[in-house]
Each structure stands twice: as C-alpha cells, then as structure tokens.
Amino acid sequence: MRILVSGGGTGGHIYPALAVATQLQRTFQAEILYLGSDDGLEAELAPAAGLPFVTVKAGKLARYVSWRTVTGLARVPVGIVQAIGVVRRFRPQVVFTSGGYVAVPAGLAAWLHRVPLLMHQQDVPANLSNRLLAPLATCISLAFEDSRVYFPARKTLHVGNPVRQAILDVRQVSVEQARQQLGLDPRCPLLLVTGGSQGARHLNQVTCRALPALLERCQVLHISGKKLFQETETLARRTLAALTEELRGRYRLVPYLDAEMALALQAADVVVCRAGAATLSELAVLGKPSILVPLPPAIGSSPQEANAAMFGRRRAALVVRNDDLTPQVLAGHVETLLTSPTYREAMVRALSALARPDATEAIAEAVARLAGVAPTREEQASLC
Predict the structure, then answer these.
(1) Secondary structure (3-state) at 249
(2) Considering just the CA atoms, what is the radius of gyration of the chain in Å?
(3) Over 80: is that where the pLDDT of 165 sits?
(4) What domain count does the chain have?
(5) What are 249-253's contacts with CB under 8 Å, separation 24+?
(6) Where would I find the Glycosyltransferase family 28 N-terminal domain in this sequence (predicted)?
(7) Whole-prediction pTM
(8) Same structural domain for residues 213 and 314?
(9) Is 59 a known ligand-binding residue?
(10) Do 339 and 249 lie in a common domain?
C-alpha cells in the first residue's frame, strides 16, 4: 500500500501528518512518501521521523494583498506541476493531507489522477486551503463535531485530532511522578504557561507581572519560546527580586521543551496557553483544566478564537481574550481553578467528552479503507 502524505507550514499541520504516517507504517506496513514545501518546517521534521521526503514549491494563500502574497501566488502553479509529477511517479493508492498551503497542490494532483483523497480538518473553522480542497476530497476527517457545518455531511467523519504518542504514553505517569521527573516539588500545585514553540510575548509579560500573586498559590513552569527567552528572563528577574527566596524557588523559566513537553502537561494542575487545535486535543486527552488565551486575528477571524469559544461553550476551559488578559485576571482565574475542586472536576468531565485518544488509529484505518486494505468500521459503514 502506497500512501502520499502532505501537510506543512507549522507544527500544528505537520505533527498530525507524521502521527498518521507512522501509524500506517506500523499497522499496515504502508510505503509512505511525505510531500512538503521547500521552505516549511516539514523539511526538517519529516526526514527526522525517518520518512522519505520530497518537496514542491507552495505559496501561502493569504487573504490580503502584500508583496509576499504576490510571490506566494507565483509559486502555486509551479508547485501544482511538481505535485502532479510526484503523484505520477509514486502512484499512491491514497493521498492524505493535514492542512497548510502545501496540501493544495497535493490534493489537486490526487484529484487529477483520480486518487482518493482524505483531507483532515483540525481547527473548528475551515481554513482557506481546506475550503479549496473540500470539493475534491473523497473523505474529510474532522477533529471537532462543530466543523460539520463547513463541509458536505456525506463526506465527513468525526474522529478527533491525532496526538503525539508521547501524550498517550504519559497518561501512565502520575502527576506527582511527572513533577519529580521534571525536578519540581511533587506536593505543590503546578501552573504551566506556554505560548507554543514561538512563544507569546503578551502571555509572557502578563505571567511575569502576576508572579507575586501566582507564587503564593502554586509553582510556575513558564515556557517563553526561544526568541523571547532573554526579554522574559529580564522581566521575571525584576519581579522576583522583591519576593522571598522560597517564592522565587517556585518559579522556573525555560525557553522551550521538546521531549519533556508531554511530561510538563501531565505534571500541571492548570495550563495557560493559546488555542491551537493540536494543543486543545492534547489537553482533552490528558484532562487538563486550562485558561485559553487565543491568538487574536491578524485580519478577519481567528481559528484559535473559534476553537477556544467551542471549548468555552462546553465548559471545558476558561477563555480570556488576548487584550483582556491582565495580571489580575490571570491570578484570579488561576486561584479559582486551584481552590475549587468541584469546578476542576466538572471541567475534566467536559474535556473527557471531547477527548479522542484513538484519533490516529481511526484516521489511519480510514486511509487504508480507501485503499481497499482495512476492514470497514461499523461506525464508518455509511461514510466517505
């Protein structure tokens, strides 16, 4: 079974694609070829995962006019021609895309060669590339039920978002053990603050200014992002200078966590973070109460705001707009969550209803089924 996998631009698109590709190799001994952009993060991550990798030129399909938009559009026809050549040579039985602008040439090439296309939608609202591909897709897997309104019902399959195997494995580690392995106090509640791999300046600044109130209640593990580490460290040092040595010892600032990130999430009582689809899926699988501060839109609407709003409606998280987050607001919400076990337990139950720990297996099986390899699941009998 030969499967062409494509997804790129950001880790949020790439990691699910890698998870599905790995599952297809493990379960169905599939031959995988990963198609990515020549300037995307996937060019580093896919080969590192041991996957054969080929690049095409892909232009970002932005909704505003700029020089970068013009140059990006100029790359699109070149990328489509290159993707057609890849499909013609590799002759996949199915193409799987997980989003990002590189998915457009991959999906179009699949359609032109009459190869079944399974497209995955991660965020609640459909992004531009997936809106373009939807009419060409054979099947559309959804991370969240709320996304059904964007696509033809006969094509959709609600399976959840693939999460990293490390997240699934860390569920076997107790909260106290996770803290010990990270060198933290196993008995003291932990607040984890993260703005993702790039960091979030506003989250960093608010957290640093809220430290006097936060450290009275809990210990804080703060992931600043590599580029923002120095400025965050300077601000934190100024704030901590007025505190006792005991309280200062409750704060740890790191630029980035990779292998230990799953452990950090498991160790946390409360997580403060953005609202990317992959992050929310991991919080749901681990049952972690959170304060979501969605990334505001640069222009138009923000998928993170829609993701967070959906979690908020289901009482699976507290949601605060980026501009509304102040040190007082942050400290107040953290105190509410830490001092109300009933509130936290209700949030964990709501998260459990959203969790899909078997999403990777379900998508891999759907891909294999389109290739005529996997048996049909009862729940998929009338879908796609």
Answers:
(1) coil
(2) 21
(3) yes
(4) 2
(5) 250/185, 250/188, 250/215, 250/218, 250/219, 250/220, 251/211, 251/215, 251/219, 251/220, 251/222, 252/184, 252/219, 252/220, 252/221, 252/222, 253/222, 253/224, 253/229
(6) 3-140
(7) 0.89
(8) yes
(9) no
(10) yes
What confidence tens digit (pLDDT) does each residue in 56-86 have? 987 565 544 444 554 555 557 888 999 999 9
CA distance 155 to 142: 10
Coil, helix or strand at residue 14: helix
352 is in an annotated binding site: no
Q: Identify whether residues 228 and 153 lie together within a single domain.
A: no
Cα distances from 332 to residues 210, 213, 309, 338, in angstroms, run 10, 9, 20, 10
pLDDT digits (tens, 9 = 90+) for 203-245: 999 999 999 999 999 999 999 999 999 999 999 999 999 999 9
Q: pLDDT at residue 335 above 50? A: yes
Q: Is 12 annotated in some ligand binding site?
A: yes
Is 304 flagged in the annotation as binding?
yes
Q: Are residues 22 and 6 part of one domain? A: yes
11 is in an annotated binding site: yes
Domain of 228?
166-354
Residue 5 has a CB neighbour count (10 Å cut-off) of 28
pLDDT in tens, 19-39: 999 999 999 999 999 999 988
Q: Give yes or no for a contact between 48 and 69, defined as CB atoms under 8 angstroms apart.
A: no
Residue 60 phi, psi (nearest 5): -70, 130
In a shared domain, residues 321 and 297: yes
Please tell me whether residue 194 adopts helix, strand or coil conformation: strand
| Residue 8, both tokens | 């790129």
- Looking at the structure, tell me whether residues 372 and 292 fall in a common domain: no
Are the beta carbons of 320 and 333 closer than 8 angstroms?
Answer: yes
